[in-house]
Please model this.
Amino acid sequence: MVVNMWKSTTGCSISEGYGLSETSPVVCFNQPGKEHLGTVGTPVQGTEIELWNEDDQIVEEGQIVVRGPQVMAGYWNMPEETAMVITKDGFFKTGDVGIRLDDGTIKIVDRLKDMIIVSGFNVYSNEIEDGLSQHDAILEAAVIGEPDEKTGEKVCAYITVKFEVSESDILTHCKVLLTAYKVPKKIVFMQELPKSSVGKLLRRELRK
Model:
């Protein structure tokens, strides 16, 4: 794990936080020295964080919404776009999906737009990508949803590999780690995955 390698090398821990351009600099942060790895920590002072479903109701797992002094007033000269993301009572809809754990820390599981719904079940691209990346042959993985007549959407994986491997071997690997409806129904081998200039994976390019 990178954080463990960092600590063994430097003697210092990494404290992960979470924020967006619209909520600079952070809305959550891990207390240095008491980090809960895999989470972005707890809300900073004066900041409210709730998890909402598509009906703007509070749930245990849902879209992260934020209200606090660091939340923007709105997009410059874009009132319609502002109204889409900021509610009348001042909550900003981040577009990220999260879970609040028992200790109050927030775990981000995916982007709302990247969530795949298979037969009514929520499937997170990040979870499938993490599972795929545990295979020794897989260098990188990107997962998107594609339309399916039976299930509404199906899980599709685009991968690059370090050495030759069969599709059946990858599927066997996935079936060990993942629930059946999360196992990719299509696997595409690629020379490279589409990325931005700073190396961010561009799933939207795969959707095209």
Remarks:
- The domain at 2-108 is CATH 2.30.38.10 (Luciferase; domain 3).
- The chain has five helices and twelve strands.
